[in-house]
Write a structure and sequence with these properties.
Elements (H helix, E strand, L loop, with lengths): L2 E8 L2 E6 L7 E6 L9 H4 L9 E6 L7 E6 L2 H8 L6 E6 L2 E6 L4 E5 L2 H15 L4 E6 L16
Antiparallel strand pairs: 1-2, 2-3, 4-8, 4-9, 5-7, 6-7
Length: 154
Amino acid sequence: HVGIVVRVYGNGVVLTVEGNAGDGVRYKRRSTSGCVFVAPKAVRVGNNPAAAVRNYYLEDLRVKSPRFVGPWRTKAQRERALKNVKTHIRRVRVGKKYAAYIGPPKIYGPWATLSQRNAAKRVLEDRLGRRLRPYSRPAKGAPGGRAQSMGKTT
């Protein structure tokens, strides 16, 4: 079975492109254990594994989810309806219409790094006067951490 390594994720997982994967050309995540890799030295030297891509968030456990209002056909209609609202407003589009969420956010983020999130956490906790729950998750489109099985190899 032959595949071309196109990315190294680390933790013994690589992304390959293969010609006979599921009777077609496909990308596959593979484990490096039990495999033989042949590559020119220029490719092997300095090929550091890519760091896992994560987004970092803060959750306010005391806040209920903001209330959804709308939709309106035009932006002007939405702004007239919201002009007397004194709380947090997050304006959104729903298809070709305009809407909004009213109320403080339950989730803050995403931040790209842990240090950015922790700095924001200190500021937000001082401003709000309460603790926020930190968490993270893989970024959209980030590689999965587990290799796929070898599948059909004959």
